[in-house]
């Protein structure tokens, strides 16, 4: 007989081990899935995990990992602060869109002026866009006690409509023959978030992601505010008695996550994406939720998780083109990762016991 | 070993190497915006890919990646195909335009073909189909068959290609039925079965008994079937599974002849950068079978219209035509030029509502 026994305290070892176990389980069951689809499972897994890192064209894929991973890490880092305190911002996708729109608009207003201050201005406006969008659920929660999960999520759809409107109207490229989409910022030197060293994938968004990780680490381990976040999440009543101002904490967590998501959007639109288009957002804001949990809401964990997610995306595309695996199979594979993580999480709080129950 | 001998050996090796290269398979990559099973746009591009494989057998190898987001992801997928040795890459969505140009600049020896865009380079061609020719025939059938005089239209994005289709369908519906009215819903998606079904239901509730769609899924067909007494047309693909009712005909994108010709050109070394915009005549736009649900006389008229367009005898945008605001556009007998059509951002007279901005 197998049964679960509650641990007196969550196991630290297990908390660290479960992400690795989840990745292993995903590899095993993903491999089985690919085998059922008629592919060599070992080859498939190697294509996804090995090729981008050490394959023939790793010189191209490694920088791409940074490009794909940076927005995920940046957004997830902000979300994790809130999640730790039990404040659930599900609308990072919308904040990401608003950051991109604000950032791009700041540059396009001055087009074709070339000046050093345009890019810094875009950074400020991009962050502000995300921050303001996150303040809507924040203030509504603080003032009227609304549910931030619902409000922030619904605002994603509002932001998407806003994005369509901007691509078709105000920000539309006047030289674009009537097609939707803004001017390409990659062709506007002052606004282009170019690679800092060519061929490395290192753009300012990647730098920002690393800074955010360090900042969050220091905040959570060394600062009073970080302590307030952790206590509120683990023991809300204790936090209240401890003098934590819940309203201020809500605004801080939502604001910071909005700010970081907005920055991610701004760096993306100014660099890899280049344009505001109707389909600009590709789900980073939602994937970042997975990244945050996969990384155990811990700064270093999130850094690793962001890299891992980026790897499955890039490797997944390679597997599609080289092995002919369908896109849906890759998505199932990525879904497995979160599923196994949540399923194995039970081991953090429970111990697996074999044999009959002891008679009390 | 003398210098000349060395050079000769080198030349020989090089010659052998190129010889071996020529015998190598031609690798053709495809970047798809939707899943190959969408039953519409991407489905037809994939059919054409299979036609290329069928045509050239062992001489070609095709690879594809489906559901690729427009933007940096598409750029990465194209780069990856080029790195893996693709000789020719078809990028089959408007949003891949700038990424295609970016990647093409990095791989001057790889040929690129971008669908529906307007940016070209020495190694980037563009191609598109004159779907509006098919819309004229749809409009004719729709205008003849509607009893409520309300025709519902599911638009994807308010871009020239879609607006052209609405105008063309409206002009020809109005010709046979002066009382006809178009109700247009913008779905802001190319492929989203749930949204498309909702749009179709709303239009049917508003009295539409014909649904035209410029989105790629079969969901509107299913919604029409459920409602009954509503007719539809297959979009991008034949959608024959909904024939004979509600689907009474369809516009089919047939990319196979073009893809085969371009692949052949790469094999022969005759590929050059071009801009292709073909319609019913060259076979890029096909009209799916008109079912018996359509009265025989309407069917005959529709087929006559198709022949007239195919032969070039009739152009769907022939004056006199006015713009929505009442200003003159085309004089009697005047035909719209391709430049205006390519950037069309206005409705013709008689359409209600505004193009979203």
Automatic annotation (TrEMBL), chain A:
<feature type="transmembrane region" description="Helical">
    <location>
        <begin position="202"/>
        <end position="220"/>
    </location>
</feature>
<keyword id="KW-1003">Cell membrane</keyword>
<feature type="transmembrane region" description="Helical">
    <location>
        <begin position="65"/>
        <end position="83"/>
    </location>
</feature>
<keyword id="KW-0472">Membrane</keyword>
<dbReference type="Pfam" id="PF02653">
    <property type="entry name" value="BPD_transp_2"/>
</dbReference>
<feature type="transmembrane region" description="Helical">
    <location>
        <begin position="149"/>
        <end position="171"/>
    </location>
</feature>
<keyword id="KW-1133">Transmembrane helix</keyword>
<feature type="transmembrane region" description="Helical">
    <location>
        <begin position="282"/>
        <end position="311"/>
    </location>
</feature>
<feature type="transmembrane region" description="Helical">
    <location>
        <begin position="117"/>
        <end position="137"/>
    </location>
</feature>
<feature type="transmembrane region" description="Helical">
    <location>
        <begin position="249"/>
        <end position="270"/>
    </location>
</feature>
<keyword id="KW-0812">Transmembrane</keyword>
<dbReference type="InterPro" id="IPR001851">
    <property type="entry name" value="ABC_transp_permease"/>
</dbReference>
<feature type="transmembrane region" description="Helical">
    <location>
        <begin position="323"/>
        <end position="344"/>
    </location>
</feature>
<feature type="transmembrane region" description="Helical">
    <location>
        <begin position="95"/>
        <end position="111"/>
    </location>
</feature>
<protein>
    <submittedName>
        <fullName>ABC transporter permease</fullName>
    </submittedName>
</protein>
Automatic annotation (TrEMBL), chain B:
<feature type="signal peptide">
    <location>
        <begin position="1"/>
        <end position="22"/>
    </location>
</feature>
<protein>
    <submittedName>
        <fullName>BMP family ABC transporter substrate-binding protein</fullName>
    </submittedName>
</protein>
<keyword id="KW-0732">Signal</keyword>
<feature type="domain" description="ABC transporter substrate-binding protein PnrA-like">
    <location>
        <begin position="25"/>
        <end position="311"/>
    </location>
</feature>
<dbReference type="InterPro" id="IPR052910">
    <property type="entry name" value="ABC-Purine-Binding"/>
</dbReference>
<dbReference type="Pfam" id="PF02608">
    <property type="entry name" value="Bmp"/>
</dbReference>
<dbReference type="InterPro" id="IPR003760">
    <property type="entry name" value="PnrA-like"/>
</dbReference>
């Amino acid at each position: 007989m197998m049964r679960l026994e509650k641990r007196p305290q969550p196991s630290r070892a297990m908390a660290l081990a479960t992400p690795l176990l989840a990745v292993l389980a995903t590899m095993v069951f993903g491999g089985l899935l690919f085998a059922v689809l008629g592919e060599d499972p070992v080859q498939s897994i190697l294509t996804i995990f090995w090729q981008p890192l050490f394959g023939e064209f790793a010189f191209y894929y490694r920088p791409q990992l940074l490009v794909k991973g940076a927005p995920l890490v940046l957004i997830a880092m902000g979300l994790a602060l809130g999640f730790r305190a039990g404040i659930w911002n599900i609308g990072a996708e919308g904040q990401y869109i608003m950051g991109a729109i604000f950032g791009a608009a700041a540059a396009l207003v001055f087009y074709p002026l070339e000046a050093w201050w345009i890019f810094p201005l875009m950074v400020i406006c991009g962050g502000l866009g995300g921050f303001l969008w996150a303040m809507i659920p924040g203030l509504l929660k603080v003032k009227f006690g609304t549910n931030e999960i619902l409000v922030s999520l619904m605002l994603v759809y509002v932001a998407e409509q806003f994005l369509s409107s901007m691509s078709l109207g105000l920000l539309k490229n006047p030289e674009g023959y009537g097609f939707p989409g803004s001017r390409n910022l990659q062709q506007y030197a002052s606004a282009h978030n170019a690679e800092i060293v060519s061929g490395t994938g290192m753009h300012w968004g990647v730098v920002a992601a690393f800074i955010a990780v360090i900042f969050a680490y220091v905040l959570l381990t060394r600062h009073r505010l970080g302590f307030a976040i952790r206590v509120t999440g683990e023991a809300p009543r204790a936090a209240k008695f401890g003098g934590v101002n819940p309203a201020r904490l809500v605004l801080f967590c939502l604001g910071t996550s909005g700010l970081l998501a907005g920055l991610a959007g701004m760096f993306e639109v100014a660099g890899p994406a280049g344009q505001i288009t109707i389909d600009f957002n590709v789900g980073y804001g939602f994937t970042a939720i997975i990244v945050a949990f996969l990384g155990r809401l811990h700064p270093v964990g999130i850094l690793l998780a962001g890299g891992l997610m980026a790897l499955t995306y890039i490797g997944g595309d390679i597997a599609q083109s080289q092995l002919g695996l369908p896109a849906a199979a890759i998505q199932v594979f990525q879904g497995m990762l979160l599923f196994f993580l949540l399923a194995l999480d039970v081991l953090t709080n429970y111990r697996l016991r074999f044999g009959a129950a002891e008679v009390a | 070993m003398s210098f000349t001998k060395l050079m000769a050996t080198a030349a020989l090796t090089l010659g052998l190497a190129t010889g071996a290269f020529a015998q190598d398979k031609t690798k053709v990559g495809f970047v798809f915006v939707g899943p190959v099973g969408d039953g519409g746009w991407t489905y037809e591009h994939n059919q054409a890919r299979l036609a290329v494989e069928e045509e050239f057998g062992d001489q070609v190898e095709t690879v594809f990646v489906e559901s690729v987001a427009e933007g940096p992801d598409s750029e990465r997928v194209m780069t990856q195909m080029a790195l893996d040795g693709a000789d020719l890459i078809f990028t089959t969505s408007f949003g891949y335009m700038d990424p295609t140009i970016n990647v093409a600049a990095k791989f001057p020896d790889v040929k690129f073909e971008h669908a529906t865009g307007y940016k070209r380079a020495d190694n980037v061609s563009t191609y598109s189909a004159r779907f509006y020719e098919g819309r004229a025939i749809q409009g004719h059938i729709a205008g003849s068959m509607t009893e409520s005089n309300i025709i519902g239209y599911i638009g994807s994005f308010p871009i020239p290609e879609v607006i052209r289709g609405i105008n063309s369908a409206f002009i020809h519906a109005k010709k046979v039925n002066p009382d006809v009215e178009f109700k247009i819903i913008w779905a802001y998606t190319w492929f989203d079965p749930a949204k498309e079904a909702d749009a179709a239901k709303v239009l049917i509730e508003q009295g539409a008994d014909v649904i035209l769609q410029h989105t790629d899924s079969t969901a509107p067909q299913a919604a029409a079937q459920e409602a009954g007494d509503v007719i539809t047309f297959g979009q991008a693909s034949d959608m024959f599974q909904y024939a004979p009712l509600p689907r009474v005909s369809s516009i089919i994108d047939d990319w196979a002849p073009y893809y085969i010709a371009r692949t052949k050109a790469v094999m022969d070394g005759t590929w050059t950068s071009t801009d292709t915009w073909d319609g019913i005549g060259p076979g890029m736009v096909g009209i799916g079978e008109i079912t018996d649900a359509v009265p025989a006389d309407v069917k005959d008229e529709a087929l006559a219209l198709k022949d007239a367009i195919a032969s070039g005898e009739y152009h769907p945008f022939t004056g006199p035509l006015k713009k929505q605001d009442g200003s003159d556009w085309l004089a009697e007998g005047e035909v719209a030029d391709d430049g205006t059509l390519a950037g069309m951002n206005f409705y013709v007279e008689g359409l209600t509502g505004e193009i979203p901005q």
